[in-house]
Every structure is written in C-alpha cells, then in structure tokens.
C-alpha cells in the first residue's frame, strides 16, 4: 500500500469510512432544478464508484432567504425529498456515502430577499441584506434543523453545516458583519452562539447515527474576522454541541488573498488545520489545493489532519481514489486549479464542468463508448485538442496515430507550464503521456505531417489539431532583433534585458509579464515565501491571519500595454483574473491602455498613450498580440478531397483556450 494513511479506515461512531478522502462541496449548477437531479445522480454515482470515502453535495439552502441566487437549490418542503432520494440511492447502490451541505448564503445571496446579522452590504454583491430580527434568528436556526431532518429522511448519511467562507454563519461570528446588540451579537462568545445552537439543536433532532460535519472558518483573511483563540474556542464548542467532523474553511469570498487558484502552493493551508489538531478529539479535515495522493498522504502522515477534502480534483478525475489505492497515481487526471470550467462557470450561471475532463457534470450526455467500426485515424498536432481527441479515440478502440513536429507532446502547454504559478500544467502532460500509451495510441514526435504523408498513410479519417501561429505586429523597428515574440522568450529562451515592454495584455501578455518579473524559483513551490508575499500570518498571532504583504523585488521593470481603452486584464477569467492583476501590481508593473505603437529604436519603444507621445526606455519588446489559426494543412487536405475534422486553435483561434480545445477534441472523438 503506497498511501497507508490515506487508505486507513476512519471510525466516526456513526459509520466507518473506508478511507480519508472527503469529496468537498462543489456547486455544479445541477442542484437548482428538479429536472437536473438525474444528471446530478449520475455525477455522484460515478464518483462513489471511484472509491471516495465520503461526499458532500453542493450547497442547498434551508430557506428562500438563504438562497445563493433566485430559485437556487433548497430543501425546505417534504416534496423536495424525492429528487434528493435519487442522489442518495444512486450513491448507496455504488457503496458510497453522501452528506448534504446546508448553505445559507446570508449577505452573499444574489437576490433582494437576502438576510444577515446586520444590514451591511458585502463588497461582492449588489444587494443590501435585511438584518434578521431576534425572532428571525430563532426561525433561521429552526430552518437549519428542519432542513437537516428532511435530508435524513431523503436518505443522506449526514449534513455539512456551512460555517465558513463568509456566508451567514460566518457573518454572525465576525464583528465585521455582526453589530447586533441582542443575545446574538456583542462579544465573541455571544457572536458564536448562532453556529453552536444550530449544531446542538440539529444533533438533538437527527439523533446520534447521522453525520454532522461543521465547516469552520479557520482563517478569515478579511479585516474584522476572528482571532485564533476565538477559533479554537468555537471548535471546542462545536464538538461539544455534537459535530462528528470539523472541516476547514479558508478565507471569505471577499478576501483579497487567493486561496484555491493554481498559483496557491499545494496544501498551502494545511498548516492551519494542523494548528487545531490536539484541541478537539473529533476528526479534522484539511482543505485547499490538495490534488495528488502524495500531497494528501504527507498531510495525514504529518498529523496535520485526519482526512483531506478535495472537490475540484474529483471533478477532474472521478476515479481518483481507486487509482491512488491501486498505486497508479500516474494515471490520475490532475486538477490544475485553473477554475476555468468549474468556478468560472458557476459564477456565470453555467453548469460546471472541468477543463481537463469535459465529461464532468455531463456524464449522461458525453460518453466515450466502444466504436461500432474500428477505423485508422491520424491526429495531427499533440496540443491539448489533439491529445484529448487521440486518447478518447483510442479509448473507443480506434487505431490512432498522433503526429507532432515537436519533440514532446503538449503544444502550448509546454510554454504555459513555465509560467510561475502554472506548474500544475506539467501534470496534464504527464497524464496524457500515460493515457495515450494506455489507449494504444501510436505517438510520432519530431514529424511534420503534410498532404503526401497523410494521403499515403492509409487513414480512414484525419483530425487536424495544428494549433495557432502568433500574430505578428508591424511598426517601424519591429524587425529589430530586440523585438521578440513570446515564443522567443518561452520556447527559445532568448536573453531578455532588465526593462521590457509587452505589447498585448491578454492571457499570454499577463503570463509573460509574470514570467519576466519573477525570479526563479516560483513562490508557488514555497509556502513560507508565498504566505509572506501575500500577507498571511503563519504564526496566527494576528486577527484574521492577516499581516502586511511583503512581495519580493521584481526581477525586471515591465510595461504591459494594450491599444484598447479600459482596465488591463478585464477579460481574464472571472475568478482568477484579479489574482493576476494583483500579482503584477505587487511587482510594480506599469499597465497602460489607449497605447499606439509608433516605433522602436535605441532609445526604446516610442508610443502614444491617450494621444501623448512617450518613450518607454526598454531593452526589449515582447509581442503577445494574439493568435491566428494554423489552417494551412487543413485547407490543403480539404482541397485534396480527404475527410478532415479541424479542432482547437486550427479551427478558431479567437478566444481559444485549453478548455475549448480539450472539450472539442473529446466531443469529436465521441462521435467518430
Ligand atoms: P496547440 O497547443 O497550439 O498545439 C498544436 C500542435 O500542433 C503543436 O504541438 C504543434 O507542434 C503541432 N503542429 C502544428 N503543425 C503541425 C504539422 N504540420 N505536423 C505536426 N504537428 C504540427 N489556456 C488555458 O485554457 N488556460 C491557461 O491558463 C493557459 N495558459 C497559457 C499560457 C501560455 C504562456 C500559452 C502560450 C498558452 C496558454 N493557454 C492557456 C492556451 C492553451 O495552451 C491553448 O489554447 C491550447 O494549447 C490550444 O490547443 P491546440 O491543441 O488547439 O493547439
Ligand atoms: P488575447 O487574449 O486575444 O490577447 C491579445 C492581446 O493583444 C490583446 O491585449 C489585444 O488588445 C492585443 N492585440 C491584438 N491584436 C493586436 C495588434 N494587431 N497589435 C497590437 N496588439 C494587438 O490573446 P493571447 O494573450 O495571445 O492569448 C491567446 C489565448 O490563450 C487566449 O484566447 C487566452 O484565452 C488563452 N490563454 C488563457 C490563459 C488563462 O489564464 N486562462 C492564459 C494564457 C492564454 P488590444 O487590441 O487592445 O491591444
Ligand atoms: Fe480543476 Fe480546472 Fe477542472 Fe476546475 S476546471 S476541476 S480547477 S482542472
């Protein structure tokens, strides 16, 4: 057994779990409508089959006021139970266990009926909440208890009471949001009565044989949160009140310190849970950026927690636990913490999925089933689109040849993986390397495919996934050797001077800026440095765990430029763009909009900014001005009458990302 701690059973009293893996709560967008519960049942069943010890649903509200958004998922009436029964039955048939998360959104509710301890608007929602009356507080506690009883009747093995991340319970606990003068506000002891009463009365109502997980905010990361002494006191009281497990919550949603994005170090907050060990007897769960078995095993072996929670990693690979148990962690499709298809979707009211696993939350619709007739298929280009397509074609039983002119698979992921904070992209390449081999795909590297070789290859069908070419920008002096493309920097590793202007502020412009300002090694691989740079107090001596951020001196002076008007990075991904902007701000990168590029010479880059001429005294310019489809081969093949499918950047380069490339490749493969 490679991971003895991870696969040690855990006796909760109510039930013995087969391992220490908790699938953490993750809103998928399928919780909100009764008609989606069959899809949700298939999603959970697949993960139960994959061997996870205990799962938690996305947040379900105990009342209309507690909705996350209008008509969000709630369990308040007896007739809501049958839809939940579909989930619990599906999980139990597979031998799994599932708890329902009770989530009252409080002032984070995105609707006009939201309530909170006090009438204080959150910085991330447009609605001002109504302050609960004293009777309203009692009614809300009853709502939690009633919801838990309905959950038990619907067949759940337990509930998770969501007490962190800045939702209602957390709002009661923190002085920041609780300015009440009745019995539910005032000093820390009175502010924490609300969660204690919820857990105590829930335990009374549901009996001893039902799991109650309490998600405890162990690090608020916002001004006016709890101090460590208060957190320990609350944990002890929650244990006495009857919780079976304490799960960790890190940071309110309005916190300006990243907690789960890919640039957060792996297990970057497990030390917080570790500090609580020994203070309570019930099992503690560590969370945040735990994505591989060795990371999980290390936390458990170090005694920092009794269980590990992973939400997104089980979106990425439903069979995560079984693969780890079999000692085949190299086969795990690792969550790269990009948020692009999960949280970004949820925040845009779209169904969640996963960049590296487009089947996530689409289990009933996107199936990789054996092909009716085995075909010989060539896939040209081993970037994300080609790798995903070839491995799914192989899985279906086709005879697949994957050709790339480069010496390694991965396409642009080989550039992305070099960006500080994008180290996880290595894992996707490792996964596909194994997956392609396991699916019997014949991978031919260092070969440029052309019309002749493809015509002579005897293929039934050809998939073109040849990606993109970087867009060229022409201005006087742009042919100077000091004007570089992003591939000169990331692929050819040409020397770059101390002062650099970057033309283009899209995803690649931001990434190249981070690459140029950061001195190796990346802070993402060093928890102590990362917490220092972002202002997290590892000693937990300061309230909320906040201390002044101390970013390291930038390795270069960088100007990031765009022609259009508006904030730079406005089009970056919804839940991660702010982290990139904050990183570059901390590194004192100058961001300019409304820029015209005039010429480059020995003085630097001559520009006009909002109509005013300026010289940026730079040693180099790096062009990150977008991409165009590399379709030449596709067009030649089509003209020659071959059956051709075009995917990824070769199809459409505008707004291309790996999510679209992998999704398109997988979906095509499911139909051939
Ligand atoms: P590509 O990855 O471009 O692959 C095309 C492949 O085709 C290449 O390997 C090439 O060698 C091969 N090829 C071309 N012509 C031939 C031929 N004739 N014969 C044989 N082989 C050929 N996306 C995200 O979603 N999230 C991110 O965080 C992210 N970060 C990025 C950071 C950087 C620095 C860069 C450069 C890109 C990033 N991207 C990111 C974009 C993402 O990598 C691309 O959208 C994705 O790689 C496109 O996949 P693709 O398969 O269409 O093409
Ligand atoms: P992009 O996002 O389209 O950005 C291109 C930038 O170049 C823009 O700032 C654009 O703004 C500028 N530009 C366009 N044409 C220009 C021209 N002719 N002259 C000067 N400037 C020009 O493209 P990208 O940064 O190359 O990224 C490529 C794809 O990879 C994107 O679709 C992106 O989603 C994906 N990607 C994603 C991530 C991620 O973290 N999710 C990271 C990297 C890449 P102006 O026109 O205003 O100057
Ligand atoms: Fe992980 Fe990205 Fe998939 Fe979300 S979309 S589960 S963050 S790999």
Task: Give a quick summary of the entry.
31% of the residues lie in helices and 17% in strands. It is α/β, with parallel strands linked by helices and 672 residues long.
Main structural class: alpha/beta
Distance N terminus to C terminus? Answer: 40 Å
Total of DSSP H or I helical runs spanning 4+ residues: 22
Q: What number is the mean pLDDT?
A: 97
Into how many domains do the coordinates divide? 3
> Which class of the largest domain in CATH terms?
Alpha Beta
List each distinct ligand once.
Answer: flavin-adenine dinucleotide, NADP nicotinamide-adenine-dinucleotide phosphate, iron/sulfur cluster
Strand order of the largest sheet: 3-4-5-8-9-10-11-12
Quote the beta fraction. Answer: 15-25%
Shape: globular
Helicity range: 25-40%
Q: What is the CATH homology-level superfamily of the largest domain?
A: Aldolase class I
CATH topology term of the largest domain? TIM Barrel
CATH architecture of the largest domain: Alpha-Beta Barrel
Q: Round the Cα radius of gyration to an integer and report it.
A: 26 Å
Largest sheet: 8 strands, parallel, barrel
Number of DSSP E strands: 27
Query: Uncertain runs with pLDDT below 50, 5 residues or more?
Result: none
């Amino acid at each position: 057994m490679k991971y003895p701690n991870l696969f040690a059973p855990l006796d909760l009293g109510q039930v013995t779990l087969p391992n220490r893996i908790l699938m953490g709560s993750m809103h998928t967008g399928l919780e909100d409508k009764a008609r989606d519960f069959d899809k949700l049942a298939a999603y959970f069943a697949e993960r139960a089959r994959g061997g996870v010890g205990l799962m938690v649903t996305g947040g379900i509200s105990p009342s209309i006021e507690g909705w996350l958004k209008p008509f969000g998922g709630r369990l308040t009436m007896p007739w809501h139970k049958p839809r939940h029964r579909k989930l619990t039955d599906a999980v139990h048939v597979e031998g799994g266990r599932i708890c329902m998360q009770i989530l009252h959104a409080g002032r984070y509710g995105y609707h006009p009926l939201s309530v909170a301890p006090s009438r204080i608007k959150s910085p991330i929602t447009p609605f001002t909440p109504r302050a609960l009356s004293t009777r309203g507080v009692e009614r809300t506690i009853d709502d939690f208890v009633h919801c838990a009883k309905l959950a038990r009747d619907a067949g759940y093995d337990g509930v998770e009471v969501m007490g962190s991340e800045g939702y209602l319970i957390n709002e009661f606990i923190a002085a920041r949001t609780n300015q009440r003068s009745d019995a539910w506000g005032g000093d820390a002891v009175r502010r924490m009565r609300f969660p204690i009463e919820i857990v105590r009365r829930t335990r009374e109502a549901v009996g001893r044989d039902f799991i109650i997980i309490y998600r405890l905010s162990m690090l608020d990361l916002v001004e006016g949160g709890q101090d460590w002494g208060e957190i320990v006191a609350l944990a002890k009281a929650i244990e006495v009140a009857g919780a079976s497990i304490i799960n960790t919550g890190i940071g309110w949603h309005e916190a300006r310190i990243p907690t789960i994005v890919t640039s957060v170090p792996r297990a970057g907050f497990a030390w917080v849970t570790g500090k609580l060990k020994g203070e309570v007897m019930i099992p503690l769960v560590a969370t945040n950026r735990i994505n591989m078995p060795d990371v999980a095993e290390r936390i458990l072996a170090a005694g920092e927690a009794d269980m590990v929670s992973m939400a997104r990693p089980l979106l990425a690979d439903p069979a995560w636990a079984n693969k780890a148990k079999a000692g085949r962690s190299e086969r795990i499709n690792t969550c790269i913490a990009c948020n692009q298809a999960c949280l970004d979707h949820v925040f845009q009211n779209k169904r969640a999925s996963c960049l590296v696993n487009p089947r996530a939350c689409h289990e009933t619709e996107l199936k990789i089933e054996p092909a009716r007739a085995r075909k010989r298929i060539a896939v040209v280009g081993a970037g994300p689109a080609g790798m995903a397509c070839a491995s799914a074609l192989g899985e279906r039983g086709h005879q697949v040849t994957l050709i790339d002119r480069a010496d390694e698979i991965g396409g642009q992921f080989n550039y992305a993986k070099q960006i500080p904070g994008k180290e996880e992209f290595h894992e996707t390449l490792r996964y596909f390397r194994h997956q392609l081999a396991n699916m019997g795909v014949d991978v031919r590297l260092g070969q440029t495919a052309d019309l002749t070789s493809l015509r002579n290859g005897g293929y039934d069908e050809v998939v073109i996934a040849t990606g993109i070419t970087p867009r060229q920008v022409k201005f006087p002096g742009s042919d100077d050797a000091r004007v570089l493309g992003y591939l000169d920097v990331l692929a050819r590793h040409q020397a770059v001077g101390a002062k650099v202007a970057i033309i283009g502020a899209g995803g690649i412009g931001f990434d190249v800026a981070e690459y140029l300002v950061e001195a190796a090694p990346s802070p993402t691989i060093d928890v102590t440095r990362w917490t220092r740079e972002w202002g997290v107090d590892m000693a937990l001596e300061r309230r909320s765990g906040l201390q002044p951020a101390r970013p390291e001196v930038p390795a270069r002076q960088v100007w990031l430029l765009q022609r259009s008007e508006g904030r730079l990075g406005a089009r970056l991904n919804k839940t991660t763009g702010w982290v990139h902007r904050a990183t570059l701000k901390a590194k004192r990168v100058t961001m300019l909009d409304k820029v015209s590029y005039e010429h480059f010479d020995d003085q630097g880059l001559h520009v006009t900014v909002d109509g005013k001429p300026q010289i940026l005294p730079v040693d180099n310019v790096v062009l990150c001005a977008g991409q165009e489809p590399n379709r030449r081969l596709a067009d030649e093949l089509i003209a020659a009458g071959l059956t051709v499918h075009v995917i990824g950047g070769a199809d459409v380069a505008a707004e291309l990302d790996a999510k679209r490339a992998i999704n398109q490749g997988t979906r095509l493969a499911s139909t051939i």
